[in-house]
Structures are given as structure tokens and as C-alpha cells.
Amino acid sequence: MSHVQNIAIAQISPRLGDFDANLAIHRQYIERAREQGAQVVVFPELGLTGYLLQDLTLEVARRLDHPDIVSLVEASRDIDVVFSFIEESEEHFIYISSVYASAGAIVHVHRKAYLPTYGLFDEKRYAKEGNLVEPFAVHGKKSGILICEDAWHVSMPYLLTMQGATVLYVPASSPGRNVMDEHDFGSHTFWRQLLQMYAQLFGVHIIFSNRVGYEDGVHFYGGSGIVGPDGHWIVQAGVGEETLVFGAIDDRDVRRARYTTPLLRDERLELMVRHLRRMGRARTDNTRVE
User: Fold this and answer.
1) Biological process GO annotation list (predicted)?
2) What is the pTM of this model?
């Protein structure tokens, strides 16, 4: 098995609430990525639906066995596909989900665990929080998915890497905020620095796929890319443009990084567990007093 994997990132501008149009866009980018030799193509958060859905949420929600989702999973027969949509569970709960599909089957589903409800964000009003943080095995390596806000909580990449993940996929719908100049946003700078820190701290490759375009006056800037375990960007997409960018990740880079900077090896999980249990007991005791 090759140590190198060719990754394509589809930095697209989804059409709000138009599932059919977005499905067609996904198929076009999958074909382009396949033709150019990519082994995995990664789409942004809610690339199949758009982000500011509000009352459109129920209309665009799809179960995993819906024909639209099945057709996209079928497209993964000769190229792996990471895509995101509004998922409706069997209980009719709504989640912001991302699927990793390979060889015509669903390998993993991650339901967004942290739903921002501050500023312009109102996700918890429409969706339910996911409760599982688990890596998945594909092509001989363990990977994990973090959806946008998930990655702003250090517990999430910590949990995935402590369970063996060496690749983290981060689909996002991050708007440009705190404009610094024509091509730089405070949110863009924060994402770059955050992902570089995680990559070095945990010795992983990170694939960041952020959307572009406008919805209801909100600008999504893009800036997608791949960060290596040494903290350097292997490839970066431009700001504000729909594009398909390519980069290669090499398992041997993770091996080298984790040997030279063995932070993950030296992590004391039992120390963390002991303190979390103590904190949990203290919180329970405080609740009883109240």
C-alpha cells in the first residue's frame, strides 16, 4: 500500500436550499477530481444544502437511505468522497452531518457535536448535537472528522488522536469576520493558526474544506487547504473563489513528526481521566447543593 494519498478539496459555493443543484455540483467536482488522479475529494460543511437554512431545514433534510444520499455514496466507487448535509435520523432528529464514503459504501458518519449559537450563528435552534467522537479506519489508516465549530474545541482533536487518528478532515462553513484588509479576515487568520497548532501538537495531517459565496449578506471566504504534521501548509486555496485544489499527504511525515516531537506519545491520559472524574463529582455535588 502506498504511503502517499492524493487529496482534492472542492471549495464550492452551494446554492441555499437547492439540494438538486448542489448534488449536480458535487458530481461535477467528483468527476474532475477523479480525472486528475485524486483518491479522496472533500466538500465543505453543508455543501449539499447551503448554511443559513432556518425554515428550509426540514425541506432539505435527508435520511442516510434517501436516494439523493445513496447516489452520492455510489459515486465513491473509485474515489473516496467526504460530503456534508442536513441529516434526519430515524427518530426524526436533525443533525449537521458529514459522511465519509468509499467503494460505494458509507464508512463513517460524524454528527456535529458543537453547535454555535452566538453572533450570527443559530444552529442549536434547528439541529441536535452529536454525541460520538470516534475515528474510522480506511485504507490502512485511522481518520477523523470535525465539522467547523467542532475544531474550535481542543477536546475534539484530542479525543480523535488519542484514539489513533492520523488524518483529520475539517469541512467548514466559516464566514469572513473581522476584516483586516482586502484579502485577510480575522477568522481566516485564526483558522490558519489553529490548524497549524493542532497539526504540530498531535502530529497529524489536517484537510480543511471551507466554502465560498454569499448567503443573506454573509460572506464565506474559503481559504481551504492541507496542513502537514510539521505545521506547514502543503496547499492552500485562494480567498473567495470556487476552485478544486490538490495536495498529497504522506504517512511517513506523521511517523517522522511523532518521533521527533513525541508530544502525543507522552500524553498522560490517566491524568486527564482522573481530573475529569474529580471535576464531574464536584459539579454533581454543586448541583445537589443548589
Assistant:
1) putrescine biosynthetic process from arginine
2) 0.94
